[in-house]
Amino acid sequence: MNHTQEVVSLILAGDVRTAARLMRDLDDGAAGAREILKEIYRHSGRAHIIGITGSPGVGKSTLTDRLIQYLRQEGKTVGVVCVDPTSPFSGGAILGDRIRMQRHALDEGVFIRSLATRGHFGGLTASARAVITVLDAMGKDYILVETVGVGQDEVEIAATAYTTLVVTVPGMGDDIQAIKAGILEVADILVVNKADRDGASRTYQELMQMLELRTLRKDRSWKPPVLMTQAKDHLGIEELMAAVKEHREFLAQDGGQALQRARASRVRQEFLELLKEGIFRHLLAQMAADGRLERIIDDILAKRSDPYSASEDLVLSILGPVEPSA
Amino acid sequence: MNHTQEVVSLILAGDVRTAARLMRDLDDGAAGAREILKEIYRHSGRAHIIGITGSPGVGKSTLTDRLIQYLRQEGKTVGVVCVDPTSPFSGGAILGDRIRMQRHALDEGVFIRSLATRGHFGGLTASARAVITVLDAMGKDYILVETVGVGQDEVEIAATAYTTLVVTVPGMGDDIQAIKAGILEVADILVVNKADRDGASRTYQELMQMLELRTLRKDRSWKPPVLMTQAKDHLGIEELMAAVKEHREFLAQDGGQALQRARASRVRQEFLELLKEGIFRHLLAQMAADGRLERIIDDILAKRSDPYSASEDLVLSILGPVEPSA
User: Fold this and answer.
1) Which helix (H) or strand (E) holds A154?
2) Domain of A187: which CATH number?
3) B221 found inside a domain
């Protein structure tokens, strides 16, 4: 058995240290790491991926913590990917939270990986997907993907989960607006956390109204429920997990057509992200090697060209025109 | 004079309505808009671009508002680009702020453009750069670029300004950490806003220490000053603008070598962002037209391939290997 095969076997057996090393190697662009990822990719696709997104301060990480606890009590194994600079999982929140999270570090059934900066893949999204693939291949039953709903990329990572939770809190009029602006449409389940706060029922009403008004992107036959939680006090977690399972069953019904669509959508996004980054990097390496890049920059600085014309001309010279299908 | 020439002339003359229409057209990908952008690009490069970034809640938009006021009192014209979902300029903050900002809407010398979602260019960064080009060609003396320092893209937009302000507030230990994590290195000037709060002098000390410890990316001969402001109370704004002007003079000294470097760095980033997006879009259009994309997705779903191998193979087949320079 060669080294790659050995690492693949260990990952598939759920070995924590091997997985952690692979994730680091992937971020560093270490030789061979990508080959291992290719091998284990074919063994992924079994975990139920749950996206958790929302503005900073809505309590996403406490909610994530409670979901981990709940799933562990059920005997499920859990992987966590955190792309949220405000989360204690990423070391971004107050010290107390961070310490609280660390108890899971002693639990072999939980694997937490935080992503704060771009790794070798060039984007947080691609790094997050690679980590999800590793956790999935490790055999985790559930993968929780916590992302802060600020940047569009972060929202997209959560949105390509099989079940996406959008978390808000009462009394943040702006939050509702932010949700209006695009986050709502990726929600499979809406969560009003900190539901003991004033205005919880109004927030609930507003969300219900919005849901009535708009058709949803992902699958129109699923009507997202709105759930109230108080994650800090462990309230509403069971009901939330029941909704997650209901959504999972919804995806699996009718021979799993909805799940197949969700999977195809994940694969498409994953491939296109890798292609976008990959073709750009390769081209950049070529242009740096043959001096084309410096010539173009000089031309633009001397106003002999502009970035728009220069990039268009280059693309056309490489790819040729787009031919309509026959 | 054809339509393009007419629009170009109006933009160069600073016509607000034409500029606003062009920005909308650019976002929508309207025919001809990009051609106009190419024309006016060659007339850009005169404005002093100031980036303003920092975590949500540090008062970036109040500071921006005060800088606008200050520059207008000096008789300077100002363009503002806002890529910050938490800013009142983007309609993201509380109503009072938003109304306060609108007074500038009546001032012909100020042009404010908010970007909340990706336009035709495919990325907020590219959209922001296009807006900056239009404002620059309009003849604005200063362009303020307000971005929330959460995502790496947002930080980068601000970082490619000629003078980048990184704003923080006292007593946010995490904020300092966030700055440590990468924002500090893009700062030409550090601002401790809300300096009447407890802990302001400690924050000041901490920032000074950090500055001592690290060499700075942009230009090592410039040592970023740390300034205290209370933007809400109009305190420290004059001193801040004095520091901005000092940095501008620094860039212009010795025949403007530092400014030339900053310009080349802007152009390089701008070109590469357009190239990255452009080559991907073009390839995607080709692959959709000839059915390649669906075949690849099917192969991955059937586990005959994986996204990593599929994207690598495709890139290599299009671009060929990277040849080392002769």
Assistant:
1) helix A152-159
2) 3.40.50.300
3) yes
Chain segment B120-161, per-residue pLDDT in tens: 566 678 888 999 999 999 999 999 999 876 666 667 777 789
Kindly state whether residues B34 and B95 are assigned to the same domain. no
With 0.90 as the threshold, say if the pTM is over it.
no
Give the separation between CA A264 and CA A287, rounded to whole angstroms: 34
Is there a domain that residue A32 lies in? Answer: no
**How many domains, chain A?**
1
- Residues B158, B33, single domain; the answer is no
Length of chain A measured in residues: 326
Min Cα–Cα distance to chain B from A29, Å: 13
Q: Are residues B33 and B68 in the same domain?
A: no
3 state DSSP class of B45: coil
Q: What's the domain range around B10?
A: 1-43
CA distance A272 to chain B (A): 8
Regarding whether B137 and B28 lie in a shared domain, the answer is no
Handedness of CA B170, B174, B177, B181 (dihedral sign): negative
**Is residue B326 included in any domain, yes or no?**
no
Contact A322 B263 (CB under 8 A): no
In a mutagenesis test of the B interface, which of A279, A293, A299 is the best target, namely the one with the most B β-carbons within 10 Å?
A279
Residue-wise pLDDT tens digits, A118-139:
556 666 788 889 999 999 999 9
Question: Are B92 and B170 members of one domain?
Answer: yes
- Sign of the dihedral through C-alpha B52, A151, B180, B55: positive
Answer whether B308 sits within 8 Å of A34, measured CB to CB.
yes
Residues B162 and B26 in one domain: no
Per-residue tokens: B267: 């152009």
Q: How far apart are CA A169 and CA A190, in angstroms?
A: 10
The answer to whether the CB atoms of B267 and A297 lie below 8 A apart is: yes
Residues B102 and B228 in one domain: yes
Phi, psi of B188 (to 5 degrees): -95, -30
Q: Is the complex ipTM higher than 0.85?
A: yes
Q: Does B144 map to a domain?
A: yes
Domain boundary among B238, B254, B270: B254
B5 and B141 inside one domain = no
Out of A118, A278, A308, the one facing B312 most closely (by C-beta) is A278
Q: What is the least distance, in Å, from the CA of B260 to any CA of chain A? A: 9
Q: CA-CA distance, B246 to B249, in Å (whole number)? A: 5
Nearest-angstrom CA–CA distance, B150 and A55: 12
- Residue A9's SS3 state is helix
Only one residue has tokens 């404010």, namely B112
- Ranges under pLDDT 70 in chain A: 84-103, 105-106, 116-123, 149-154, 172-182, 214-220, 324-326
φ, ψ dihedrals at A32, nearest 5°: 90, -25
Measure the CA–CA gap between B227 and B79, rounded to whole angstroms.
23
Asked if B315 and A282 come within 8 Å (Cβ–Cβ), the reply is yes
For residue B27 the two structure tokens come to 């976002």
Residue of A276, A295, A316 to mutate, testing the B interface (most B Cβ within 10 Å of its Cβ):
A276
Q: Which of A262, A42, A32, A26 is nearest to A124 (CA)?
A: A26
